[in-house]
Predict the structure.
Amino acid sequence: MILIEFESVTKHYQLGEIEVIALDNVNFTVRRGDFVAITGPSGSGKTTMLNLIGCLDSPTSGEIRVLGQPVTCLDEKALDTLRSRTYGIVFQSFNLVPVLTALENVALPLHLHSLKSSEIRERALAALCSVGLGRFADFRPDQLSGGQRQRVAVARALVTKPKLILADEPTASLDTASALSLVELMKQLSAEQGVTFVFSTHDQRLLQHVRRVVELRDGSLSTIREIQPSAEQQQAGQSEVA
Ligand SMILES: Nc1ncnc2c1ncn2[C@@H]1O[C@H](COP(=O)(O)OP(=O)(O)OP(=O)(O)O)[C@@H](O)[C@H]1O
Ligand SMILES: [Mg+2]
């Protein structure tokens, strides 16, 4: 199933007299279960692309389809609904609320849905356990390491069972060991639960661990590696998300 399609997408920004071409005629597809890293130097358009995938911004020209639906013709209300049903977002700097525990942070997005408080707690705890942090449920962010905080952020993105998790430089604030362990966690969630991830990174060491890597250079996109998943992996992903 195709989640996201970019067809000849461009994004220009006007900076005074200068027109910046952030994305230049980009074609790109994300299927359910994909695990995609977007790489490229600073200023190459990674954040611009993630914002467009997440419908947080609109293209200058071209078409973006989410679940087959062209998004350029949706109004703000329809976009809001689409965003809340489709995406989980992991920010570079975690964005956890310092006075809340790990469990309460993970539970936050569920308060927008009409759920019983016992169900909210149960789902938040399950998400925390799936990132290996069940026993840290009552810890506040300042009592956790950077790697653990980013895992809490992944759990918070997962908790609403989104179709796609977007992460802009999720490992940028982490040391190498924590960064590698976060990528391994995302791969595991992708393989075992069929979660779809699209994330950006500068870090070449991480890219060795990713099957599909696309690169932006001056707004143009090219694929630098694409290893198809094995039949078993495809089946595991499909049966989990069906
Ligand atoms: N709101 C904006 N207004 C004007 N220009 C912008 C805006 N956002 C991004 N740009 C420009 O678009 C280009 C792409 O920026 P973008 O933030 O997508 O790059 P990036 O690859 O995410 O960089 P980094 O690795 O530093 O985060 C840059 O030249 C940037 O200056
Ligand atoms: Mg960026």
Remarks:
- The CA atoms of residues 128 and 134 lie 5 Å apart.
